[in-house]
Amino acid sequence: MSEAARRLSYGSYLKVDRLLSCQEPESLKTGAPAHDEMLFIIVHQAYELWFRQILHELDRIQADFAARTVADEHLGRINAGLSRIHEILKLLVGQLDVLETMTPAGFLEFRDLLTPASGFQSVQFRLIEARLGLHDDARIRIDEQSMRERLAPEDRDKLSADTNPSLLSQLDAWLARTPFVALGDYSFRESYRVAVIAALQRDATSISADPALPEPQRQADTAAIEQALARFRALFEPDATTSTWRMSARAIEAALFISLYRDMPVLQLPFRLLQALMDIDESLTLWRLRHALMVERMIGVRPGTGGSSGSGYLKATAEKHRIFIDLFHLSTYLLGPRDLPALPDALRRRMGFSYGAA
Amino acid sequence: MSEAARRLSYGSYLKVDRLLSCQEPESLKTGAPAHDEMLFIIVHQAYELWFRQILHELDRIQADFAARTVADEHLGRINAGLSRIHEILKLLVGQLDVLETMTPAGFLEFRDLLTPASGFQSVQFRLIEARLGLHDDARIRIDEQSMRERLAPEDRDKLSADTNPSLLSQLDAWLARTPFVALGDYSFRESYRVAVIAALQRDATSISADPALPEPQRQADTAAIEQALARFRALFEPDATTSTWRMSARAIEAALFISLYRDMPVLQLPFRLLQALMDIDESLTLWRLRHALMVERMIGVRPGTGGSSGSGYLKATAEKHRIFIDLFHLSTYLLGPRDLPALPDALRRRMGFSYGAA
Amino acid sequence: MSEAARRLSYGSYLKVDRLLSCQEPESLKTGAPAHDEMLFIIVHQAYELWFRQILHELDRIQADFAARTVADEHLGRINAGLSRIHEILKLLVGQLDVLETMTPAGFLEFRDLLTPASGFQSVQFRLIEARLGLHDDARIRIDEQSMRERLAPEDRDKLSADTNPSLLSQLDAWLARTPFVALGDYSFRESYRVAVIAALQRDATSISADPALPEPQRQADTAAIEQALARFRALFEPDATTSTWRMSARAIEAALFISLYRDMPVLQLPFRLLQALMDIDESLTLWRLRHALMVERMIGVRPGTGGSSGSGYLKATAEKHRIFIDLFHLSTYLLGPRDLPALPDALRRRMGFSYGAA
Amino acid sequence: MSEAARRLSYGSYLKVDRLLSCQEPESLKTGAPAHDEMLFIIVHQAYELWFRQILHELDRIQADFAARTVADEHLGRINAGLSRIHEILKLLVGQLDVLETMTPAGFLEFRDLLTPASGFQSVQFRLIEARLGLHDDARIRIDEQSMRERLAPEDRDKLSADTNPSLLSQLDAWLARTPFVALGDYSFRESYRVAVIAALQRDATSISADPALPEPQRQADTAAIEQALARFRALFEPDATTSTWRMSARAIEAALFISLYRDMPVLQLPFRLLQALMDIDESLTLWRLRHALMVERMIGVRPGTGGSSGSGYLKATAEKHRIFIDLFHLSTYLLGPRDLPALPDALRRRMGFSYGAA
Predict the structure, then answer these.
(1) C-chain residues within 8 Å CB-CB of A22?
(2) Which residues are noted in the entry as heme-binding (chains A, B, C, D) (predicted)?
(3) Which terminus of chain B has a lower count of CB atoms within 10 Å, N or C?
(4) Phi and psi dihedrals of B224, rounded to 5?
(5) CB neighbours of A139 closer than 8 A, spacing ≥ 6?
């Protein structure tokens, strides 16, 4: 242990003095200090600290994904990183509980002093969105301007340097490489197609065979089966021009396989990974709505300091800025246990651990 | 203490045996028990227990409000009741954290067995919405049917018996009776109108007087002032045919008065009451979105068991089924401390406590 | 709006660059970066930000209390400040959820580099404790050293400058001034003493009169009544040499009065204030235990980096470092509604609002 | 789908009517209904519902563990079950947030009516404790009676039927069977012993070699190394008569191995399992303290309705009724990455997946 380390103190390690020199309320400069401005500053600074941590986790997760093959040894820590991001996002929602102890009138005491600064300009948050996979052209435009056009030039540069490829595209590539969906004679796609058709036909037969079923119900049930059939057909024969999926057909197929056979030892961590991505998408969405409601409560229908439409804009992002939405929609295509085709034994063995192999 | 009471035990007091006889998984009857169905039942039963508690709180709150004048002695317990409802709603969001430990495939093992039962049919939840103030005609319709039309006849009856008047209309009547907004010579409406116009004129003057302001900015700022003026005019001279307010003009006026002069002793609890109602509206909205996301995750874009469009319907309720939205919009109309007119001394004294009166 | 303000940006307002320059992992300097050290730094810096906010709230709360009489206009904002501190403390517990995503092995990668820095040295946290009312001599000693002795000299100075008087002593003085406990003919102490004795005698009589009561139960019940009587006697005639109360007898008496007659308009906010102080005490205690468990999980029974006994020390602080414990113990002395003496009418009127006075 | 299922409604599926017939406030029978008694009943019934769910999860987890070898296919669902229990326990803490909206005076309105019923008598909670692994003789005694002696005879029977073996003992047996800790030439115990001694000797040498180190510091550092050596010796050569471990030496050794080499594919889920058990132990402990604080707040230092010492007893259980404490203490024995011996290549291969085997 070096002499320097021996002298390390809590304050010097954490740069507490510098950290506590970062709060400079604008209202203080006007001579009419607004009590709640400190809270406003602190909560946003705490956000920036946590954004930094999220980016730090994404650094390792994306580096692990960037390898030609994602090492089995790394899946555990990828999942741990995603879980940590999820926990952080839950905390960020909790921070709004604190911010909401500010009243609208308390906010009004200093709000005008902040124009035209706006939370919109948080470069770290834009980076997180972009690195997760929110594409510029999927973003809601404000006054017909894209997000990038509304940023200061230097912030725009920071954003461009560091966002390629996104986690979503890395995930796509990784899923598309899943070896088990087509191995030797086995084709998951074929096996599943057969099972789906069999299940739907059985349902159709049981409807025809039920004399007690009132005619309107019979028609409704039959229509539902036709719809289901159409949905599955679109899944198996995706048409690039009409598809609403963001991920590639191969990735969707693999994600479905993982969800269905999640108990196979080799799929347990990949399944957990897909769940963690949905957790992140969901908690981000909840944070957006919560943020929108808080803004609505603070300023009503006034426009935001940065010129956006305020709470309306934020609500729209909760609706539209979903990143891993495909994983949510995947549930539409799950067959229940009664209909799920069994995996061939040889495949099952390959999906187990070495030590257990005969 | 009676003999009977002496023999009271935890189990007999809480009817634990009866309570634990209420879980009858459908999948058990089919001979293929689905592990997660118990969770599904338990979480919904826990919801119903908490709904009962919310209704119990509304019973007292609404009885207190039903008095010709709401007793000052009761304001504390009304606020306590509203805070309790808020805490319960937060807990209900937390219950979704537990429910989300169920995977879509786990749900699929028993989901079909539940048709056509649907969470939509929770009479207690419909009652809570109605008693808070969600009007039937403000509700989203499903397949062109109103909520009532979709309920079973006996449930419809339960709903009709017990929802008049709603807390929203009681609140409106109570606010409209606030004595201080017009007392002797003092008229809050006049006093505030003058202050608003003065503030907006000052802003307009400072824009004209700034030679450095680029012309487009000057136009934008001027337009913003015009808009603000129009907003305030609509507040002071509400036109019944175009108004988007749900509450009466007198109630809106009083709520604004309370928000502005919230530190006056007599207004501190009423202000807290308005905040508590917004807390409830907000947490109910968050629960709706959270519920919608969970459903999306569980079943994708399939329709709900009860025939609704599933997660899409639930998302729409988060957007549209707001009850105390007027209180959120009120923030639009607050003046900052620099512009807020002072209350006359005589009025201030009347708004204080007896013991302090000269 | 000045030119300067017009140019304000999110980054310049919040000093984002400076804020994000405060993270300097020690492990980076050794050439073997430990991934989790960033989390360790961020979470502690987030703590320091929130500690600053707590101190900011205490600034105003204590200033409001420092006035000769606490203005009725200020009670609302005092309560709001205490509620905000409570929300912050809940958030700090939530931060441990994030920190616990670090594994013990992850911590071990950099822990030795931090010696002898220790969370013990957080001056802001020591200040919060001291300003709330944790006295130096009530603190647990480490290696027979007091907390101050273990701090660096410059930190000791910061601590001394700013902690007198504590919120606990301000609360005591404020409670002791409560006018209503003895007003004209009315003495709460006398009135309550009579009611307590009557209630206990009634219980004793009903025990004697119950022939079915088994002798051991009779003796136990009688002993319980004797104990209760002794407890109340100690409350009414506090003996400075044996009292375990930290607050003065007059303050205890007033706090009891407020708790019993909390619905009186003039007491509603004071009652809420006492509850808020208990909320703070409780959430601080929970944070301490949670912290202790996390440390136990991270380092087992090793000593802390700063030389304390690690998790054992922290657990002891959860037990002993209670500040508003008297308020919790007060519940021991409440009479139920059946036994509570009514307030004289004249007193009731004085405890209402001016506008309602005849 | 059968006719019966088609007629299933929300109310009939969930037995809503029966569920809502279980709330019978005692105070109602006395003619003086206490408003808060409903909350008291509801919160306890919600607890019992969730306890049932925890027991349902334990049923499957323990059945999976009861197999001669725990199937790799089942590890994912065991972990999911433990995570669900953890989420439920967090929810139960949240329920106390709701219960604490009751004031002590509100509780006093009906508390006496409940004697001698007591939360102590919750058979389901006693079952959860016992099935997790809290042994009767490790429990705190009340009035020199064991927990079982204080239960009613019929409750005692329920408890005896269903608690053998506990999850703790199943965990012990499973860990003790871990194949990798001694395989062919490889002995984890030997390999780790060598590494520990080498690391401690290196530290000792660096202390001797540092001329700048003040003598008292040198002595303290040397003593710390001696202590560490003694700790490790006790780990490797456990003495049954002095050991404070609850688990067997083989189980401890395997748990340490898993914690150290957690990134090996075959150990990732076992590591997650150990973490989940600590999560459960920790959240149970937090619930106990939180419960104790709430009781202290409600009744001060009065005894509990069931005759226990009230909050003091509950605090003691938070301290003593720890179940998986050994896993926490394990962290004491981890070596950092610099000192951790590498696994032999052949062993590493056996700990990977089949598909990757050469």
Answers:
(1) 14-15, 18-19
(2) 291
(3) C
(4) -65, -40
(5) A146, A147, A320, A321
Share of chain D above pLDDT 90, in %: 62
Question: Taking residues C117-127, what's their average pLDDT?
Answer: 91
Q: How far is CA D138 from CA B201, D84, D134, D319, D322, in A?
A: 77, 26, 7, 12, 9
Determine the 3-state secondary structure of D174 from DSSP. Answer: helix
> Which of C97, C304, A352, A248 minimizes the C-alpha distance to D76?
A352
- Are D101 and B84 a contacting pair at CB < 8 A? yes
Residue A4, in any domain of the structure: no
Strand partners, A182: A187
**Highest mean pLDDT pick, A51-60, A333-342, C218-227:** A51-60
Rounded Cα distance between A281 and B296, Å, is 12
Q: What is the ipTM of this complex?
A: 0.93
Answer whether B331 sits within 8 Å of A282, measured CB to CB. no
Task: Express the helix, strand and coil content of chain C in percent, nearest 5 each.
Answer: 70, 0, 30
Residue D275 lies inside a defined structural domain of this protein: yes
A259 inside domain: yes
Distance separating alpha carbons of residues A317 and A284, to the nearest angstrom: 10
Interface touch B356/C73, C-beta < 8 Å: no
Q: Map residue B94 onto helix, strand or coil.
A: helix
The pLDDT assigned to A106 comes to 94
Closest CA to A62 of A151, A162, A198: A162
Which tokens belong to D113?
A: 């009516």
What is the DSSP code string of C23-59?
---HHHHTT---TTHHHHHHHHHHHHHHHHHHHHHHH
Nearest CA distance, A49 vs chain C (angstrom)? 6
Question: Rounded mean pLDDT of B166-185?
Answer: 93
Instruction: Print burial letters for A201-219: b (CB count within 10 Å at least 16), e (below 16).
Output: eebeeebeeeeebeeeeee
Over residues D142-156, the pLDDT tens digits come to 777 888 888 888 888
Mean pLDDT confidence for A29-52? 97
Which positions of C make up the binding site for heme? 291
The pLDDT value given to residue D1: 41
Q: How much is the pTM?
A: 0.94
Tell me which H or E stretch contains C187.
Answer: strand C186-187
CA-to-CA separations, C321 to A298, C141, D247, in angstroms, rounded: 38, 12, 34
- The pLDDT tens digits of the residues spanning C233-252 come to 888 777 767 778 899 999 99
Phi-psi region of D34 (alpha: psi -120 to 50; beta: other; left: phi over 0): beta
Domain encompassing residue D213: 27-356
Handedness of CA D264, D268, D273, D276 (dihedral sign): positive
Which of D114, D302, D326, D327 to mutate against chain C (most C CBs within 10 Å)?
A: D302
Q: Which of B289, B305, B325, B335 is best to mutate for the A interface (most A CBs within 10 A)?
A: B289
* Residues in a beta bridge with B183: B186
CATH of the domain at D163: 1.20.58.480
Contact D87 B98 (CB under 8 A): yes
In a domain, A2, yes or no: no
As for how many domains chain D has, the answer is: 1
Nearest Cα residue to D106 out of B81, A348, A125? B81
List chains adjacent to chain C, taking adjacency as at least 3 C-beta pairs closer than 8 Å: A, B, D
Which H/E stretch holds residue D186?
strand D186-187
Q: Three-state SS across C6-29? A: HCCCHHHHHCHHHHCCCCCCHHHH
Q: What secondary structure letter does DSSP report for A187? A: E
> Known binder of ligand: residue A88?
no
Express each pLDDT in A123-155 by its tens digit. Answer: 999 999 999 999 888 888 877 788 888 888 888
Q: What angle do CA D82, D86, D90 make, to 5 degrees?
A: 170
Q: Name chain C contacts of D330, Cβ cutoff 8 Å.
A: 104, 300
Q: Which of A20, A12, D218, D223 is nearest to C116 (CA)?
A: A12
Task: Find the closest chain A residue to D1 by CA distance.
Answer: A206
